[in-house]
Write a structure and sequence with these properties.
Keywords: Membrane, Transmembrane, Transmembrane helix. The chain is mainly α and 104 residues long. It has one helix and no strands.
Length: 104
């Protein structure tokens, strides 16, 4: 009877130890998972912030480039129009003035 009790107690102790080990392992795993989740969240946040900053910079650069290109095209078109208008005005003035000047 004593041997059986000892065996049972020993078995129960072993079971308790195993349970404790399992609980410790689970706690460690949970801690590791929490750390991993925190690390992943931190990395994601950093990456997102960097991406937002980079994308914002890229968007600003693209907007500036587009504005500069539009302004340049507008200026070129206006310059061409002014040149065409000036040339037309010069041609018209020559057409008007030279026939009048030539007979005189």
């Amino acid at each position: 009877m004593m041997m059986m009790m000892r065996r049972r107690r020993r078995r129960r102790m072993m079971m308790m130890m195993m349970m404790m080990m399992m609980i410790m392992m689970m706690m460690m795993m949970m801690m590791m998972m929490m750390m991993m989740i925190v690390e992943v969240v931190a990395v994601v946040v950093v990456v997102v912030t960097v991406e937002v900053v980079v994308v914002g910079l890229v968007v600003v650069v693209v907007v500036v480039v587009v504005v500069v290109v539009v302004v340049a095209v507008f200026v070129v078109v206006v310059a061409i129009n002014i040149i065409i208008i000036v040339t037309i005005i010069i041609i018209i003035t020559q057409m008007i003035f030279f026939p009048i000047k030539d007979p005189i």
